[in-house]
Specification:
Helix 4 links the parallel strand 3 and strand 4. It contains six helices and eight strands; from the N terminus they run βααβαβαβββαββα. It is globular, with a radius of gyration of 15 Å. The chain has a six-stranded parallel beta sheet with strand order 2-1-3-4-6-8, with helices on both faces. The protein has a two-stranded parallel sheet with strand order 5-7. The mean pLDDT is 89. With 194 residues, it is α/β, with parallel strands linked by helices.
Length: 194
């Protein structure tokens, strides 16, 4: 199965997210799948859509389906992938997450009290692309998380000289992502997600 978790709602940029990589992965997989829209610009605990509510929706889907578990996300959607792993581990869920594919995960939400900087060891493989073309304001607004991992996680990370939006395919797709899309697609193909 593939759980695709978006980083922001369409209303933020005044356009839909259907050209971004998370949506593309959702469309291109032949696995059972769900697309979970991202939060609005401000997504603190009282927001209808936030990291916590996205993770809850994903865990309900996972519990209702059999087979390998794969998660893909961008920005707060990628942070929600980490939250899913933590929630499943804490509940004693009996299956591991086979792979997480994270496009510049950002924990700027406040809806959860969890430490979303650590990938738990119920994740077998984690691929994290980090956007490095951020000015000091963007680094403060979009602090990359999922920087560490517990023993037993196969963790591969790569820096891309692109913006937070560019890494998700928002700025001209592969023309503006410094290779992030092709890098992540290769890993998703290797795991049979695409």
């Amino acid at each position: 199965m593939l759980i695709a978790m978006e980083g922001s709602s369409p209303s933020i940029r005044g356009e839909n997210n259907y050209k971004y990589y998370v949506w593309q992965a959702h469309n291109e997989t032949s696995q059972q799948r769900i697309y979970i829209p991202g939060p609005a610009a401000v997504s603190w605990g009282s927001s209808a859509i936030n990291i916590k509510s996205m993770a809850q929706q994903a865990t309900i889907f996972i519990r209702g389906h059999e087979g390998p578990i794969n998660l893909v996300g961008w920005s707060r959607g990628a942070a929600a992938c980490v939250q899913v792993a933590l929630d499943l581990k804490r509940s004693g869920f009996g299956r591991n997450i086979d792979a997480m594919f994270l496009f510049d995960p950002v924990d700027q939400d406040g809806s959860t009290n969890d430490y979303l900087n650590m990938i738990p060891n119920n994740v077998t493989n984690c691929y994290r692309g980090k956007a490095t073309k951020k000015n000091i304001i963007d680094r403060g607004l979009f602090p990359t998380c999922a920087n560490f991992y517990e023993p037993g996680v196969s963790y591969i990370t790569r820096d891309f000289n692109t913006s937070h939006g560019g890494i998700s395919g928002t700025e001209g797709g592969t023309k503006g992502d410094d290779g992030a899309g092709n890098w992540m697609w290769a890993h998703m193909r290797r795991h049979g997600v695409l």
